[in-house]
Specification:
Elements (H helix, E strand, L loop, with lengths): L2 E5 L3 H12 L3 E6 L5 H9 L3 E4 L4 H4 L4 E4 L8 H9 L2 E3 L1 H6 L5 E6 L4 H14 L4 E5 L5 H7 L4 E5 L2 H5 L8 E4 L14 H9 L10 E5 L3 H6 L8 E6 L6 E3 L3 E4 L2 E4 L8 H16 L4 H7 L11 E6 L2 E5 L6 H9 L5 E5 L12 H7 E7 L4 H7 L6 E4 L2 H11 L5 E4 L12 H16 L2
Length: 441
């Protein structure tokens, strides 16, 4: 019996182990860290051997194929040893896609992919299709493929997952945008990260719809690498594309969305909605049906999420905005004066791109982090007032002191959260809970 090893015992790894076992492989799961209790129980129940706290290198190198978690960097010793031996090393996405005949919509991009994935899933589900949600979101793709209950899958795909995809060919391949991110995994070479994102299109043919934002400068510069046989579907502000975004609407062939009626606001969300509508249409749903279901959509938390209004001041949780580009999109979403809360673990951010929007819209900056010196020095001459703190409640109370009725307090950090919080969700949840307590006394 051929041996398949799984590196990493999170959601994707355990799901891949279950699928491999169901297909008759001898399966061994290895995680250098600790496994959650529920995952250990699942592996025990399915008689899948596993180890934690180490990698048994000899056993792993005896595998016919190895499925790797996206969280494991390519530069680790175990990955170097696998490559040196020439063993097939693939992602859960690559492995699971071999075993399904369901239609696949795969979505990648540096920003906005979760919102776009959830929108596309919502459109397909509202149309009555049996839809699976997976990739970076939802349950393991491999586990869902094993259970075989869906007609179509909507997958949010990261660059790390794409790095280990070789034959993967989605029916609808979506690329939203490309801005510098995760460069520590790509030898600090932006071109390497770009190449990773473009792997979403690498196997496209005449049966593939390739949906992308045509105004993105990086995508535009590399669009000639998309296979010429593919069906190209574009979103643009500037040209008569398949989805043409104007100041007040998105125009499709024979259909239109009035942006004032849309549940998501801001130019970046116009792009996300246009892309998701195109993707759902390419997956077989009529525009009329898609647009009818849009008002019922609720976005994921921590993405420009309204937390309520306190004395006429609206509080917005955008904790997911962990890079500068995401903050740029957030600032562009509001015409009202803003009190901006930023800060956390700086990832080598260059804040200059924000300067014009900050000058125009931000009446006060609150820095929330262990070390706020970079934010203070950069924005000191740009905003009228700055306040620094390590305590989120103090940040919220100070923002309320500065704000007037009609203003917006925006938590959009541009930074990772690990200095003061467990993760961006914890940061956003604390913000929401404190705001709600203060509103309701």
């Amino acid at each position: 019996m051929a041996l398949i090893s799984i590196l990493g015992g999170g959601e994707s790894g355990v799901g891949a182990a279950l699928l491999a076992k169901s297909k008759g492989f001898d399966v061994f799961l290895s995680d250098a860290g600790a496994l959650k209790e529920n995952y250990q129980q699942t592996l025990h129940e399915n008689q899948i051997e596993f180890e934690t706290g180490e990698h048994s290198v000899e056993r792993i190198l005896a595998s016919q194929e190895i499925i790797i978690s996206p969280g494991i960097p390519e530069k680790t010793d175990i990955v170097k040893a696998i490559k040196a031996k020439g063993i097939s090393l693939v992602s859960e996405i690559e492995f699971a896609a071999r075993y399904t005949k369901a239609k696949i919509v795969a979505i990648t991009g540096s920003n906005g992919k979760t919102t776009t994935t959830l929108l596309t899933y919502h459109f397909l589900k509202s149309a009555g299709l049996k839809v699976g949600l997976a990739g970076n979101i939802g349950q393991s793709f491999a586990k869902q493929v094993m259970e075989d209950q869906h007609d179509v899958y909507v997958l949010e795909i990261s660059s790390f997952q794409l790095d280990r995809c070789f034959e993967f060919k989605p029916d609808v391949a979506v690329l939203l945008n490309i801005t510098p991110d995760h460069l520590d995994r790509y030898e600090y070479q932006f071109e390497n990260y770009i190449a990773s994102k473009f792997r979403i299109f690498q196997n496209a043919d005449a049966h593939t719809s390739c949906v992308f934002w045509a105004d993105d400068e990086v995508i535009k510069a590399h669009a000639t690498t998309i296979p010429t046989s593919a069906r190209l579907k574009t979103v643009s502000f500037h040209t008569k594309a398949d989805a043409y975004i104007t100041a007040d609407s998105i125009q499709f062939e024979g259909a239109a969305l009035t942006l004032a009626d849309a549940p998501l606001k801001g130019p970046h969300n116009a792009i996300n909605m246009a892309v998701a509508i195109l993707a759902a249409h390419e997956a077989g749903v009529a525009y009329e049906q898609i647009l009818a279901s849009l008002p019922l959509f609720e976005n994921a938390p921590h993405r420009l999420e309204s937390c309520g209004t306190w004395d006429g001041v609206e509080f917005i949780n955008d904790s997911k905005a962990t890079n500068v580009d995401a903050v740029y999109y957030a600032l562009n979403s509001y015409k009202q004066p803003l009190i901006l809360i930023m800060g956390g673990v700086d990832k080598g951010n260059e804040y200059e791109v924000l300067d014009p929007l900050v000058k125009e819209k931000v009446k006060g900056l609150i820095c929330l982090g262990d070390d706020n010196s970079k934010l203070e020095s950069h924005f000191g001459g740009i905003v009228p007032q700055i306040f620094s703190t390590r305590v989120i409640e103090r940040a919220i109370i100070k923002s309320k002191e500065w704000a007037k009725p009609g203003d917006v307090v925006l938590l959009s950090p541009a930074c990772a959260s690990f200095d003061l919080f467990k993760n961006y969700e914890d940061r956003g949840d604390q913000f929401k809970n404190i705001v709600k307590q203060l509103i309701h006394g």
